[in-house]
Design goal:
Structural class: mainly alpha
Order of helices and strands: HHH
Helix content: over 70%
Strand content: under 5%
CATH architecture: Up-down Bundle
Distance between the termini: 37 Å
Number of strands: 0
Radius of gyration: 26 Å
Number of helices: 3
Shape: rod-shaped
CATH superfamily: F1F0 ATP synthase subunit C
CATH class: Mainly Alpha
Largest sheet: none
Number of domains: 1
CATH topology: F1FO ATP Synthase
């Protein structure tokens, strides 16, 4: 596997992880309510804090999810699915290139077949592990 091919595969797996995590973080930020703006006080008056009595505070029913929350949830799911898909593409390309180059190497030097096969299996296992990790992160972003 050439350095360029390895860089492409690693870039695709890293992009998949990023696309899986970033929309989830953005959705979490969008779901949080914005802070209330502070009321400007005149400089010569002390700040007054008002605490409502517990008897007068009525429990408000939870509001239905607003359009921002729905959009954030959809964006999170889309990012997770897109990241998992890119991870699959990157892993498939990486393992395919490894198999291709290993076959070429064995065809050129049949006496080095054992060493080439060992290196090929180790490289494929590493790519497969990174791909599974990216897919799991993507699926967690979709389900959570």
């Amino acid at each position: 596997m050439s350095k360029r091919s390895a860089k492409i595969v690693l870039l695709l797996v890293a992009a998949a992880l990023t696309l899986s995590i970033v929309p989830a973080a953005m959705a979490q930020e969008m779901a949080q309510e914005p802070d209330q703006p502070a009321v400007a006080q005149e400089p010569d008056q002390p700040a007054v804090t008002e605490e409502p009595d517990q008897a007068t505070v009525a429990e408000e029913p939870e509001e239905a999810a607003g359009p921002e929350l729905v959009a954030a949830n959809q964006m999170k799911k889309f990012g997770g699915a897109l990241g998992a898909g890119i991870a699959l593409i990157g892993g498939g390309l990486g393992i395919g290139l490894i198999g291709s180059r290993a076959t070429e190497a064995i065809a050129r030097q049949p006496e080095a077949a054992a060493a080439v096969q060992t290196a090929m299996i180790i490289s494929a296992a590493l790519i497969e592990g990174a791909t599974f990790f990216a897919i799991i992160v993507g699926l967690l972003a979709v389900t959570l």
